[in-house]
Design brief:
Blueprint: H1 3-14, H2 26-35, H3 41-54, H4 58-63, H5 66-73, H6 80-95, H7 104-107, H8 115-126, H9 135-144, H10 156-167, H11 173-186, H12 205-208, E1 225-235, E2 244-245, E3 256-257, E4 260-263, H13 269-279, E5 283-295, E6 299-310, H14 320-324, H15 330-339
Parallel strand pairs: 1-6
Antiparallel strand pairs: 1-4, 2-3, 5-6
Helix pairs in contact: 1-11, 2-3, 2-8, 8-11, 9-10, 9-11
InterPro entries: A/G_AdeGlyc_MutY (IPR005760), DNA_glycosylase (IPR011257), HhH-GPD_domain (IPR003265), HhH_base_excis_C (IPR023170), HhH_motif (IPR000445), MIG/MutY (IPR044298), MutY_C (IPR029119), NUDIX_hydrolase-like_dom_sf (IPR015797)
Catalytic activity: Hydrolyzes free adenine bases from 7,8-dihydro-8-oxoguanine:adenine mismatched double-stranded DNA, leaving an apurinic site
Protein name: Adenine DNA glycosylase
Amino acid sequence: MNFTKTLIVWYLQYKRALPWRDTQDPYAIWLSEIMLQQTRVAQGMPYFFAFTEAFPTVSDLANASEEKVLKLWQGLGYYSRARNLHKTAKIVAFEMGGNFPDNYADLLQLKGVGEYTAAAIASFSFNEAVPVVDGNVFRVLSRFFGIATDISGSSAKKEFAALAFELMPKDDPATFNQALMEFGALQCVPKNPDCGVCSMNVGCLALQQNKVDLLPVKSKKTKVTTRFLNYLVLTDAHKNTVMQQRTGKGIWRNLYEFPLVETPVEVNEEAIALAAAQQFPQVTAVSLGQRVNHKLTHQNLNLAFWEVRSSATLPDAISQDAARALPVPIVIHNFIERHWR
């Protein structure tokens, strides 16, 4: 069977109607690709609409404050994407006259734009014949052609990119790239794909060799760190609270949070009361509000929200409404929505 022809026929019949497919505008395509990194389409779609409404052009995004960008991004995760998005918008708007580079090599020079995103923009916006290689592409090609290369290896991307380039119709790379990714997202899914109804099943080597569940091969495992984060949810005599901005290069950089006490293990109310009194001498009462487990790619976070009362006026305190307006990690946002009435 003809892999490319069969794939594109399937795509034209079953593709999803997605807003960034109705345009060749590199701004919209760039925005969607950054948002959809490690994010499902259903989760990313509302954010795409929110951003394009708030920032219709790259110049609008460039002129926005980082705080507003982070607030709109809140809940999408991997916040370095949002910070890099903002930095790149400034470069394109202020140094490139609002025009994105029109080729793969120059797109790669932009902050936060890697090989995958550069290839997507170059092919979708400028019809450059460059293959897109993501998890979906690894999976489809490794299964159909029976490739047992470890995709976590350093040479895997070059091998799969070369194969994709060979299969790609050079006069229409955009449709091929979209079709390959869509097929992996909808049909050749990671677990329990319905191979019986698959348009490609006649030529699929993984199916013929009963290796669908074994491909692609990925040996490298992510090391996960466990952390215990204790948040002091302060309320003073005026019902104000305290929020602090995260700094450094760790998770949630530049987002806001309640005062934090990080401990090596889970601690009790007595230990938190002592730590709170050291930071805020005006504290009169401490009680546990909620414990939450929050999993990130490389970290398992055990969060405890401690409700801390003060009879005095806290320094640098702000109203709860002001705190709600700040960009915060989604776990803190969820706590605020549940516990602040």
